[in-house]
TrEMBL record:
Domain HTH marR-type as annotated: residue spans: 3-134
Entry protein name: MarR family transcriptional regulator
InterPro entries reported for this sequence: HTH_MarR-typ, MarR/SlyA-like, WH-like_DNA-bd_sf, WH_DNA-bd_sf
Residues passing through the membrane, by range: none
Protein's organism: Paractinoplanes lichenicola
Length: 139
């Protein structure tokens, strides 16, 4: 059975979150996809192929995205020692600074959005969101 209220609430929440991310990205002259890429690269050094898979982009799109970020000094490409045909994408200090600044702004925005919720409700929302995310990873 489809719960239309749940579908609508999650869609509206998604719009709020995506709009916040897009606004913050725009303030730093970044696209939403560039912002997502920097978020991934803060904690990982994926191959080009893995980064494309994380972002849902094909080979030519990920190459263009990384090219633009590299020209801006946000990322570098590093060939792997084991296979020089495989390239890792690494965040630069400038990319890390920009990612941290954007993350801090996003955290402030989310804190403002949820400020009217009592602490127990915020914990419940966090737990439920994590359960949905975890369940979505099951093949």
């Amino acid at each position: 059975m489809i719960d239309d209220d749940l579908v609508d609430a999650l869609a509206q929440l998604s719009f709020l979150v995506q709009n916040a991310l897009a606004e913050i990205a725009g303030r730093h002259d970044l696209s939403l996809i560039q912002t997502r890429m920097l978020g991934i690269l803060r904690d990982h050094e994926p191959t080009m192929q893995d980064l494309g898979r994380h972002l849902g982009l094909d080979k030519s799109s990920i190459s263009g995205l990384v090219d633009r970020a590299q020209r801006r000094g946000l990322v570098t490409r590093v060939p792997t020692a084991a296979d020089r045909r495989v390239t890792l994408v690494s965040i630069t200090d400038e990319g890390r600074r920009l990612a941290a600044q954007g993350a801090a702004e996003f955290a402030e925005h989310i804190a403002a959005l949820t400020a009217t919720l009592p602490p127990d409700d915020r914990r419940t929302l966090t737990a439920l969101a994590n359960r949905v995310i975890t369940a979505s990873r099951i093949p």
